[in-house]
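To: structure desk
From: M.T.
Subject: fold request, one chain
Message: Could you run this one when you get a chance? Sequence is below, nothing fancy, just the single chain.
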Amino acid sequence: MTMMDEDPSALLPEIFLAVAAVLGLLLGSYLPRKRQWPVIMLAVLACIGGVVATAFAGPTRTVFGESYRIDVLTNLGRYIVIGSLLFAIGISVKHFRGHKRETELYVLMLLGSLGAVIMTGANDFMLLVAGYLLASIPLYALAGFGKDDLGTEAALKYYLLGAFSGIVLLAGVTLLFGVGGATGYLEIKLAGASGVIVAIGLVGVFAGLLFKIGGVPLHFWVPDVTEGSRPPVAAFVTTIPKIGALIAMFRLVPLVPIDWPVLVAVIAAVTMTLGNFAAFFQDNVRRLLAYSTISQVGYLLMAVVVATRSDWAQPSLLVYLAAYALTNLGAFAVVCALPQATTISDYRGLFRTRPWLAVVLVVCLLGLVGTPPTPVFVGKLAVFTAAVDGGFTWLTIVAAVNTVVSVFYYLRWIAPTVRTDPVRS
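Reply: Done. Structure tokens follow.
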């Protein structure tokens, strides 16, 4: 029988990333250490090709045995992931130029981004697991790329917690397959299965995805990896995997036969609150940004909470993801430009010595707060509207209070930046 849905052209963005990773690794093996730029160009061309192919992706459909879904979530997820990858490559070039493993860095970034893209379109639990692993294993190597003490420790913690979360995810998928009789989202039958087993399986899958986005209680790796890894790697790790995992969570909600929005809402509230209050005590700028990313996850989870309860949920999630990716990468770009400035006090007088960097930093930090008219403000407003529309007004109030609270620790960084004392370099 001919499989009418086996259309490789539907997966051109993913194919471009995969082929660029393989060719980049081969090409880098033959290039001199100081001339690795062709690998960078190959990665950039793959990203451009992926964006163009996404623009011509065609109508909503499922391909390859209905295991992969091409729709608005997938296509906009592709745009956000590939755009973020381009940004991450841009801030990595200067930092890693001439590094003896420069090629491997971009290959690992391509593979990690491919995993995130696969998670956005996965319509089958087995494909979700494959995307999860592809978005995890390359990142463990990236975390320890510097081979220094902090990086090695961070990579080890990241790997151990990731291995545990991956096992929990696989166990959850196994339970759901056992009671549902299939792994495809369209074929699995959970409505008539044992509620306890279904709940345990879904919690396992959800826990694995929580690790990937850095949500409570599987957030412990985020500050250590953000501080211990190289700044461009920290930017990549705290941005791109979240995109795929959050969209994957959003897709799973309609499958759930039990009422679990309250559980997700509690996790969202705890995540944003812990992230904001932990950031208060941070003087290290990378750890501050790490806890900031945790708090942002709490806000993003609000869209997942009301995925089946509000028409605003999907557009609000996508808008917020795009805004968060741009703003978070922008803040990290400033950190990458000042590698010796590790604490808040090191940024004293930056506006006088490096005014453009100071302006970018202030705009990005105010953007992370959600100050109008920044993109995150639009995303936050959309998410808050979706939560209220979905009947979670209390969660919106918690999020609004957290937003006010976050102003204070971002101002701790902004205040010395705009002073006139010189920055240490």
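Reply (cont.): The radius of gyration is 21 Å. Let me know if you need anything else for the meeting.
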